[in-house]
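re the bet — no i am not wrong, look at it urself. input seq straight from the record:
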Amino acid sequence: MPDDPGQPKLGPHGGPRTKGQRSAETMPTGVRRDYIIRRLERDGRHDLAEAIREDRVSAYSIAVSLGWTRRAEPVGTSISSTNAAKRRQYQLRALTGEGLSAGQMMELQYGPSPSAGSLFGSREELENAWQRARERLLEQSNPGRRPAGFYEFEFDGRRPPYDTERSVLWRMGLLSEAEKVTLEREWRQEFQTAQAPDFTVNDGSGEILVGDCARAAHYAWADIPRELVKRWSAAVRRRRARQPVAPSEEVAATK
């Protein structure tokens, strides 16, 4: 879906960067409220984006806490400026978890920054933070998805690829009952979509897949567990076998 031309355009994650240069199509980070909200949405921090929209915290404070920009050094010190700083800290702590900064919560969700590294001083500190933020982060996760902290401290083995994460957790029995119901309903709908007689898939190279090849590609794209595909496919075959043969087909079969 193309970006709304009325909104600032987001740059991609990572990629080559040249010091002192910025894409002409990308708005400067950390200074525009609408840009910060869109960047938070892109990074999955819908809670922080919503807090900005509701004026519970300023976009600038969030950008500073995440390291996207720097707060200007105050000229002199006063009781009012000190109180304002304390008030900002309290707001951020309430939004991001007891005693954790927005950046630390982001690390627990997505892992450490490849360039800046971890914001925690030790593995013990990281694990302690995970235990404090665990419930909040799990509640925010989409069905079949888990934050980085879960895979670091509660998962046996390497983190599964994003494209197969949901089916891996389903197969290992690590989903809640509500998650299973939600995902299996979604997978069943995708399976049914692929049963259309004229179902096709564009594989991205320009080739159009048809028949069983198209269905297999669609099942892989939707990350439907192969066990469910096998079960539902068998049910489709049994249902088709029970359907009566049309009179015209009976006549053709006797010829």
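see?? The chain has three domains: 25-72+84-96, 100-159, 175-255. told u. also The longest strand covers residues 200-202. so pay up
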